Amino acid sequence: MKTILLKIGLMVIILCSVTGCWSKVELDQRIFVNGVFIDVGEEPGTVKVSISTPLTNRLDSDQLSGGGGGKDKPYSLITKQSTSICKALEYIHKDLSRQLSLSEIKVVMISEQYGEQGIGDLLEWIKREPDVPIGAYLLVASGKLDDAAHLTPIFEQLPTTVLLSFATQGYMLNTTIKDCLVADAAGLGYAATLLQNDKIHSAADAHKSETWTGIKGAALFQQGRLKGTLPYEEAKTIAWAHGHLKFPIYSIQWDHGKSKADLKFTYTNGKTSVKMTQTARFSPFISKAGPAS
């Protein structure tokens, strides 16, 4: 009898453990954030935070292949200001009908002005927010961050998809939040892709203009602050040193500038080395260049 009761009790315990997650939140009750944009606030000591979220109710079969197919934009951009990133997100969350999910963040974009003030608060917030993936890419916007956040996704559906491509397609740097955290902990500097905004004529209406965003160069950080920027041609050297620059093209001259040629490297590889001198703390160099065509 005791054995039967023991088996029944064990079965009840097992059944209770497989009933599912009691604290679950259904997918249709969540808002998935895929991009975060951070800028200085309008008042001193404040920060402006914007989140980009896809609107699944506006995605139809005609839009799945790319952007520009729908009347309504399939994404939303919500902005709030406060004294910290966490408080700004709280103000965003309290006005929404669904729960925010930060686990799908792919891109974190900051303005130059915010970077010059220091991104220590951003890194500290990410350390203490377990839902934010440290594999998200860090990008820097030259000029108005609002323009970059509202860029027109000509070939894509979402602006964050365009920004993600800039970080992954291999034409500049692919700096992640993890890279920033590791470098910051080691007291080292790091670089991130710098983007610029421009205006182009609308494909739907030639009398209207749309925001276009492209790669400008690299933003250089030291001790958690933006210290300077490099133009595109010089920034390619840093990307080469990281070993992932895709098909770089370099122009060379000889005969006192009378003869010119463009070289396209079909394969490149690079590494960095540190050499202590009296005039400089480090001296990186690039090696292992692949064949050129």
What does the model show?
The chain has 293 residues and is an alpha/beta fold. 26% of the residues lie in helices and 29% in strands. The chain is built from eight helices and twelve strands. The chain has helices spanning 2-17, 85-94, 112-117, 120-128, 145-149, 159-168, 177-186, 232-242, and strands at residues 30-32, 35-40, 47-54, 75-82, 99-101, 107-111, 137-142, 190-201, 209-222, 225-231, 249-254, 259-264. A hairpin with a 6-residue loop joins strand 2 and strand 3. The longest helix has 16 residues, at 2-17. The termini are far apart.
Strand order of the largest sheet: 4-3-2-6-7-8-9-10
Cα shape: globular
Helix and strand element order:
HEEEEHEEHHEHHHEEEHEE
Structural class: alpha/beta
The average pLDDT value, as a whole number, equals 82
Features:
8-stranded mixed sheet; 293 residues; two-stranded parallel ribbon; alpha/beta; disordered C terminus
